[in-house]
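Handout, page 2. Input:
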Amino acid sequence: MTFSVNAISDVTAVIKVGEVLDSRTATEFKSVSRDQIRCGVRNIVLDFTDTGSVDSTGLGSLYTLYRNISAVGGKVYVASLSAYVWKTFVLTHTYRVFRSFISVDDACRAISDCSYSRSDSMRISRTPVLVAA
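Output:
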């Protein structure tokens, strides 16, 4: 399985995205995220720690998740974006849709029912910053 799920509470889950989110993995991603929404999860944090690449199909699956969870009053957060993934988000204006964080801990702190306690990281600005690759 490319994706792992860590339930933080009844309504919050962290989905760890694998090395890539592309045409080969998008269907599985949609299935995993849809299952979480069906189980009552309303806040999903996407952990991109190990992700080096997101293609157009992967971006489409993120927007599908956004539409599905928004329809039930939920939110999607992204965390730990690599420079390449962040650049993809900036070039496609995806950073305007998803609230981005430096770490999963920061994203969870932003959600009221999470109680992570690390204080050594900070929130990513929503202002686009191109990072040299």
